[in-house]
Amino acid sequence: MAKITSVSPLAPASFPTLPVIRGARFSTAAAGVKYAGRTDVMLAVLDPGSCVAGAFTKSATRSANVLDCQSKIRLEDDAGAAIIVNSGNSNAFTGRAGDESVQAICAEVARVTGLPATRVFTSSTGVIGERLPHDRIKAKVQELYDGLDEAGLPNAAKAIMTTDTFPKGSTTTVDLPGGTVTIAGIAKGSGMIAPDMATMLVYIFTDAKIGQSDLQTLVSALNEKTFNSITVDSDTSTSDTLLVAATGASDVSVTADDTAFRDALHHVMQDLAHQVVRDGEGATKFVEITVTGALNDADAKTHAMSIANSPLVKTAIAGEDPNWGRVVMAIGKSGAPADRDTLSISFGDVKVASNGWVDPGYREEQGAAIMQQENISMTVDLGMGSGTATVWTCDLTHGYISINADYRS
After folding, report:
1. Label partner for 380 (CA 20 to 30 A): which of 212, 253, 273, 298?
2. Which residues does this entry assign to the site Involved in the stabilization of negative charge on the oxyanion by the formation of the oxyanion hole (predicted)?
3. Percent over 90 (pLDDT), the chain
4. Which DSSP state fits 223?
5. 23 and 46 in contact (C-beta within 8 Å)?
6. Which of 57, 122, 172, 199 is catalytic?
């Protein structure tokens, strides 16, 4: 796996101070899944009464871990739950051996924690097509359990990293009529990032009291606006997993219709999604693309993702070239309806094109100045309807090639 020697220039200034989420404890260990001496396994154990919701990759070649989580996610049980994650090996495209690895790890976590195996969720991330040395993970489960700490979430963020250049965390609190609820989450992701869902692992924890079906409703809806609205390289992973756990320890009840809680969870999910893009392999620019005036929201998103995934658009951004013709190309190829003669494009606050032609007031140096910025916004108005969508991406540089050419070295 490629060795990362520098932190992304788009990284946050510092890792946030993550609060204790009552009812959840965390630990990490070095199991030697791929590299000796590297912390590469994390365990989270949730108190009885906790519920878990999730979203997963739709890849046809998804891993044994994903398939197992999908089979368990809607099962309700007051026993609590555990989440165990390893980096270095994705346990994907490993056939029956992959299923056996998941079963063996779940059985050992169940034995040590006293939880039913149906309440143990696993994730693996790293190289595809190599058998997971699950005995190394099993050998660490007791150590992990003995080291559980309610303040251990920041260390867990580091344990799940692969080509990430920085650990990713986010948190917020929300004051509700019944009291204060806390939300905190971690993520990993840098390359192989595209919706369906976007390619990463994400674990979010809250002390809110909420039913599994309500939590699942929220997670599914918010996932579409956050992790399913980012792309680094248009490639969808075999291992994408988002798990959101609610312990209920605050005793503050919420539902899927609670706007304040929804907004708070949205904030954490979007923050983590943006951090994944900011850590895009080789990235030097963070790009927000908004499409308005489409026939509907779905068409708007199709157009936005076509722009965001275009290698020509992304390399132009890397070269700080305001080549708006490439945006026109991406709109035209998306497959969603568009009208050449009603199309308008802006880079930042600079109107580049209006009604199907270069804007009369546009000057090339204006667009070039926008492209020199670290954070770039693009807006495309199709002039056809009221559909809108916003997605986030990064540029495509030589750094991406270097990382992925040597990924298994």
Report:
1. 273
2. 125-126
3. 80
4. H
5. yes
6. 199
- Structure tokens given for 279: 């850590």
Q: Does the annotation list 409 as a binding residue?
A: yes
- Give tens-digit pLDDT for 258-270: 999 999 999 999 9
Task: Measure Cα distances from 260 to 23, 137, 172, 174, 263 in Å.
Answer: 22, 39, 12, 7, 5
Q: Is 231 designated active site? A: no
- Residues near 40 by Cβ (< 8 Å), separated by ≥ 6? 29, 30, 31, 32, 33, 34, 86, 87, 88, 159
Residue 87 three-state SS:
strand
Cβ within 8 Å of residue 129, ≥6 positions away: 92, 93, 94
- Give the span between the Cα atoms of 167 and 28, in whole angstroms: 14
Cα–Cα distance for residue pair 331/104, rounded to 1 Å: 48
- Which pair of structure tokens corresponds to residue 73? 């996610």
Query: Chain-wide mean pLDDT for the chain?
Result: 92
1 pLDDT more than 60: no
- Tell me: the pLDDT tens digits for 146-176? 999 999 999 999 999 988 899 999 999 999 9
* 89-108 average pLDDT score: 95
- Structure tokens given for 337: 């309806």
DSSP letter, residue 149: B
228 and 392 Cβ atoms separated by less than 8 Å: no
Whether 101 and 68 have beta carbons less than 8 Å apart is answered as: no
Q: How far apart are CA 263 and CA 260, in angstroms?
A: 5
138 is in an annotated binding site: no
Instruction: Give the Cα separation of 121 and 109 in Å (integer).
Output: 10
pLDDT at residue 115 is higher than 90: yes
List Cα–Cα distances, 202 to 138, 198, 268, 269, 271, in angstroms.
Answer: 22, 10, 11, 9, 12
Q: What is the pLDDT of residues 129-149, one digit of tens each?
A: 899 999 999 999 999 999 999
CA-based angle 108:113:119, to the nearest 5? 80
Question: What is the chain's percent helix, strand, coil content, to nearest 5?
Answer: 35, 25, 40
Q: What is the pTM of this model?
A: 0.92
pLDDT at 57: 84
Instruction: Tell me the CB-side half-sphere exposure of residue 148, using CA atoms within 13 A.
Output: 18
